[in-house]
From TrEMBL:
Residues 24-51 form a coiled coil. This is Serine O-acetyltransferase. Keywords: Coiled coil.
C-alpha cells in the first residue's frame, strides 16, 4: 500500500524573489541618481563658465 507524504517545504517557485530583477532595479535607480547629479554639475559648470577638465579656485563642496 502506497502512502502519500506531504512535503515539509512547499516551494512555490512563482512566489520566490527574483534576485536578478532586484539587482537591475537597484542599478536603474542608481543610474537615474547619477544622471541627475551629472546634469546638476554640468549646469553648475556652465554657470561658472568652467569647461570640464579646467582647473579653478572652487573647492570641493562635498
Amino acid at each position: 500500500k502506497k502512502r502519500l507524504v506531504k512535503p515539509l517545504i512547499d516551494l512555490e517557485h512563482g512566489k520566490l524573489p527574483d534576485p536578478v530583477a532586484e539587482a537591475v532595479n537597484i542599478l536603474v535607480k542608481r543610474i537615474g541618481e547619477l544622471e541627475d547629479r551629472t546634469k546638476e554639475l554640468e549646469a553648475r559648470l556652465a554657470r561658472e563658465r568652467i569647461t570640464p577638465g579646467e582647473t579653478s579656485e572652487i573647492g570641493d563642496e562635498e
